[in-house]
């Protein structure tokens, strides 16, 4: 048997101890082939030992350097580390919120670019962790293929968005018609090229590691690209469906931190030792109240027109009234803020467990006092999925503009058949009067 020296990483091929020659075995011939085969099997077994590694065997990633501006360090040098971190987080939080408001003022296109930039940075932070953990194995084409797959998936999702929302414009441009018509085939062909390159890059001694990292890349794409696509889809449903969910998570993060900082005594979950029940509960009530005070100045749709609702029997007895006047969006905002404050934090707990598994404090050191971009958007991605599902389930109805766009690309005979069918249907309902034949 081979002696394995396993200290957090697999030994290289040179560390293998060759088995003693069998009695009567001569060099060369069939015996040499058998010996080579046994050697390859032993190497596979050694690298297969990766599957039995525990969390304590994961190689440690060197801690990130402190990127706090020197002017802040000097200004806060007399404070304890607890209060120093409080001030750094507070100042950087206000700075980020101010920049966010500026980008909102610049319009929807800049918000889309912001979402794309955040997506790419989050992808980079997660992929970098994987590369640092397994960098000693020198996996061929890992980083190149990871970024290639990111490009392919973004091409697919953004192409779908253009086809859905800008089809009328695209139909006027002959150069774009081909790309839109065969968009999914082109996207699949691009992905298939990357898939084939991955298969061709497989190296015998790295099989398991390469498939680990292949899965790592695809899970990262699922977390970052898919969720950011849903954020943009929510934006196209209306600015309010972009601002309120994001504001809910931001509000919950801030108020939960403040309540936990000043009143926190009871630990909430072992994955995040600094999280407390006081912060969790305080963040919930603060978020529900703050989000329902959201005010916009625009032409109101049905969601923002006051309506009267009948109360359930048990509420009638408590409130002593049968009806209540509310804006429909107030009901939706209660649902959004409740999810942001009760379920949204589990996105942060998931990220905390991920970081603990790889023995790191933050995903990166991009933002002093906060960590990486992923540290700030771990809850936002979960919120984006909920909002998209909520809109498709309870808000969005049939979209006449999309139906019209599909009709315009049909053949004239197909359009005429649809016209006749629709006309007959409207006559049966009494909406149109039947035409008299002369």
How would you describe this structure to a colleague?
- The chain is mainly α and 438 residues long.
- Among the domains are: 13-53; 81-140 and 203-298 and 339-395, no CATH class; 399-433.
- Helices cover 66% and strands 4% of the residues.
- It is built from 17 helices and 4 strands.
- It has helices at residues 29-48, 70-75, 81-106, 108-133, 142-165, 167-172, 174-181, 183-200, 207-236, 239-263, 277-291, 313-319, 328-342, 345-357, 373-395, 400-408, 412-428; strands at 267-269, 272-276, 307-310, 323-326.
- The strands form 2 sheets. It has a two-stranded antiparallel ribbon with strand order 1-2. A two-stranded antiparallel sheet has the order 3-4.
- A hairpin with a 2-residue loop joins strand 1 and strand 2 (272-276).
- Helix 11 (277-291) runs antiparallel to helix 13 (328-342).
- The longest helix has 30 residues, at 207-236.
- The protein is flat.
- The N and C termini lie far apart (99 Å).
- Residues 1-37 and 39-52 have low confidence and may be disordered.
- Pfam families: CTP_transf_1.
- Its EC number is 2.7.7.41.
- It is a multi-pass membrane protein.
């Amino acid at each position: 048997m081979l002696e394995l020296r396993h200290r957090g990483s697999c030994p290289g091929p040179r560390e293998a101890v060759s088995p003693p020659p069998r009695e009567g075995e001569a060099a060369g011939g069939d015996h040499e082939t058998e010996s080579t085969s046994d050697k390859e099997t032993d190497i596979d077994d050694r690298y297969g030992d990766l599957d039995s590694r525990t969390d304590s065997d994961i190689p440690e990633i060197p801690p990130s350097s402190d990127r706090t501006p020197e002017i802040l360090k000097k200004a806060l040098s007399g404070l304890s580390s607890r209060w120093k971190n409080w001030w750094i987080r507070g100042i950087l939080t206000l700075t980020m919120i101010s920049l966010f408001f500026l980008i909102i003022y610049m319009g929807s296109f800049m918000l889309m670019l912001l979402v794309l930039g955040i997506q790419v940075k989050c992808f980079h932070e997660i992929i970098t962790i994987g590369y640092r953990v397994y960098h000693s194995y020198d996996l061929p084409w890992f980083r190149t293929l990871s970024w290639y797959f990111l490009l392919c998936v973004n091409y697919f999702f953004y192409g779908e968005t253009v086809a859905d929302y800008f089809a009328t414009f695209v139909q006027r441009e002959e150069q774009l018609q081909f790309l839109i018509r065969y968009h999914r085939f082109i996207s699949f062909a691009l992905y298939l090229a990357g898939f084939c390159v991955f298969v061709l890059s497989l190296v015998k001694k790295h099989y398991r590691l390469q498939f680990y990292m292949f899965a790592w890349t695809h899970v990262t794409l699922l977390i970052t690209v898919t969720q950011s696509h849903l954020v943009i889809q929510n934006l196209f449903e209306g600015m309010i469906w972009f601002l309120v969910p994001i504001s809910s998570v931001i509000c919950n993060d801030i108020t939960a931190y403040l309540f936990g900082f000043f009143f926190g005594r009871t630990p909430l979950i072992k994955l995040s030792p600094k999280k407390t029940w006081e912060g969790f509960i305080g963040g919930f009530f603060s978020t529900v109240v703050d989000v329902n005070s959201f005010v916009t100045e625009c032409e109101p749709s049905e969601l923002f027109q006051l309506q009267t609702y009948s109360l359930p029997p048990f509420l009638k007895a408590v409130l002593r009234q049968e009806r209540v006047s509310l804006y429909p969006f107030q009901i939706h905002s209660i649902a959004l803020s409740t999810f942001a404050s009760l379920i949204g934090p589990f996105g942060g707990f998931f990220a905390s467990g991920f970081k603990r598994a790889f023995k790191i404090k933050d995903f990166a050191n991009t933002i002093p006092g906060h960590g990486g971009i992923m540290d700030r958007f771990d809850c936002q991605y979960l919120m984006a999925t909920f909002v998209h599902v909520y809109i498709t389930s309870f808000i969005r109805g049939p979209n006449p503009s999309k139906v019209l766009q599909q009709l315009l690309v049909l053949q004239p005979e197909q359009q005429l058949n649809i016209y006749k069918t629709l006309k007959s249907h409207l006559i049966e309902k009494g909406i149109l009067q039947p035409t008299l034949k002369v």
